Amino acid sequence: MTKKDVAMEEETPDQVVARASADVLRVVLADDHARMRGRIREALESGGCTVSAEAATAQEAVELAEEHRPDVVLLDIHMPGNGIWAAREIAGRLPGTPVVMLTQSAEEDDLFDSLRAGAAGYLLKDMDPRELPDALRGVLAGDGAMSPRMLTRVMDEFRGPTKRRFGRRSPAAARLSPREWEIMHLLSAGRSTDEVARELFVSPTTVRVHVSAVLKKLRVKDRESALRLLRGE
Question: Does the keyword Phosphoprotein apply (predicted)?
Fold first, then answer.
């Protein structure tokens, strides 16, 4: 280990921010699609960042993060080895190096699993790539980096608005996942299966699968019976 590596391990968060502000922001980029990595690299370099290394698998991301000690690691989720696993490993091995997920997945399970793994941000690939450099600098300054749609999911999880709008909380109903509550609330508001799918950016089949799971949990035969139970009717 070099003297520089030792010094970096001993840096405080304020020193990390100061160094990143003074120097070009160094990023390890992990995504299994080479063309996507190229587009992300171009956006980062146009915004004053430098990509220290690129990885195509979760294992490579962990190894390259340890080797290069970047300011930020930018991870895809659905790549060989699982980006959430990589986030957990990097957060444990390099606690001073923030990890930000950059993914196509708007699924709540991926969002909350990433945050539990230690990710400091969760960005969707449909964002304007020119905003990436500032988002990563914000993370180093102590801000969160999250696409607005996903921030709404986090706020809903803690506020629990869909759960409170139904009148009764039976032991069976309490087992519904946040996504199941969200779908049942939208259905109770008169949305069709296709409308719910469009609003949540999932397929109609996914909505039906979640509804089937709700029926099993509530031990009812149809959607209307489930909604009446959740409303306390």
Answer: yes
